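We examine the record.

___
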Amino acid sequence: MTDDSTALLTIGELARATGLSVRTIRYWSDEGALPPVTRSAGGYRLYDAASVARLELIRTLRELGLGLDDVRRVLAGERTAAQVAAAHVAALDAQIWSLKVTRAVLSTVARRGSSAEEMTLMNKLARLSAAERQRIVDDFVEEIFHGLDTADPWIRERTRSLGADLPDDPTPEQVDAWVELAELLQNPDFRAAMRKMIESNAADRAPGSPAGSSMWFFRRLVDLVGAARARGVAPTDPEADAVLTELLGADTDRASVLRRIDLGNEVARYRELAAVIKGEQEPPGYREEFAWVVAALKAWPGR
């Protein structure tokens, strides 16, 4: 205590009472967050019991990451602690999202052994807004469906809805999946393969076919081949020829079907990445069923 008043504390005494350093208390005092109650005859700053409580509040707000400007506003009653906390939460959320994006990009760079140029592109793709991500998907859909008005609209909408909805609070795995998907969507070879699939779909659809009818063939394939495999039918068995006829019809160009299924394998990674971005379980790929059909079509190419 000082000789001015037993109710007042010097900075040194305040430091010992709170566990803070003299340097920190002096800085906060110089910045106007903790003004002294008065000064001693020798010019030393003096503080009272209310200053101790004020100092504890300052320390709490600073430990929570608030800047001195916000601290002063709270202490002056210009803003409530709740208002400042809400604004700070929003700022922290943005920082956390940015850190997750940074971590995902760096993890991908390390895993791929990417160059500086590739790292720059990945960082740009990862930080796109929702509208910018959707624009990449829309451009992709426009190119592969352009001029193919008879293609199943269900496929168009399904393709458009896959992959752009990166959550507001994405995991590093989701950011990584989006970066890979964005690169895939802009890959000319992948676009060409998808275009061929849509061309085949458009050529096979009869006028007036309902949207979603293309899914019927896929489901029928899985059901018929799954049942055949359960019976132990191998692709080279004569019964496999009968399964193909039941699935495709007697007059279908099996070579054309084989080419289309081979193209379908090109999009497996696309669906896997989209599932990761949406936070869903990886969709069933039915790789074994499609592999069985491919082997059967090669063993029984038809006439």
Notes: The chain is about 65% helix and 0% strand.
